Fold Site-specific DNA-methyltransferase (adenine-specific).
Amino acid sequence: MQSTAHPFVKWAGGKTQLLPEIRKHYPHRIKKYCEPFVGGGAVLFDVLQKCRPEKVLVNDVNEELIKTYLQIKTDCNLLIEQLSELQQDYKSQSLEKNKILFYEKRLRYNELKINRNDAENLEKAALFIFLNKTCFNGLYRVNKRGEFNVPFNNAKNPLICDEENLRACSELLQNVQMKTGDYSDCKNFIDSETFVYLDPPYRPLTQTSAFTSYSENNFSDKEQLELGKFITEISSKGAKVLASNSDPKNTNKEDNFFDDLYSNFEIERITASRMINSNAKKRGAISELLISNIASVF
């Protein structure tokens, strides 16, 4: 296996760049690991490689994302075959034809997704990765009907089939339990031996920043408050907890929403880069929150 496996898709809010800060909050030993909002899995793959937990549960509300994880875990060779064919097709033709190919594949993916055709999970997983590599900014966004609606990104030579990384991810995922659903469904897995990392949909800093939807469900302040109760509950069970979220004070110094919600936890403000914005000039340094009941071990 290669020395480091990394996320097989680009994901809004991905934590690769923040791993050095997040690692400071890893417990000295991780016997059980749970990630209720796994997303692109940057922290998952880091924990799997560095800490080798005995039991792992990951969850996400995005059903197609979890099905893609499962496909990588169970049928990586077949997935690589399909992605290789897509990559060959893409590289063999003009950008104009690739734009047509993209929208054909997006239509096919949405047909499979909306019809819930589980017999075609391999094709859906290949299309999921293909679209991620060739759509604008690697976003995953759906409309109210649940249809993927991100446009083409005009990439000339994207790496659609990263065979080495897919095999590395597959090897690491063999002992990982996967679920699709609400984060609270992880409650029974979590106990005093569990390290839990939570990376929920961030609270928008402005109304215009809330343009992405990774599923048909919204995550408003009401859901943030409910998540706060969940985090307090699992912390009271003895679980070691680390959560990420946006820092409202980036835009309003008087906004104490998270400072009040997590007043019994350690709150650290770290610097991150805003990587996804329709205006490139607005991508830059920004403060984010790490909320924890674990003292920094570094």
User: Anything to note?
Assistant: Confidence is low (pLDDT under 50) at residues 276-283. The beta strands are 32-35, 55-60, 176-180, 194-198, 240-246, 266-273, 285-292. The two ends are 28 Å apart (CA to CA). The chain has nine helices and seven strands.
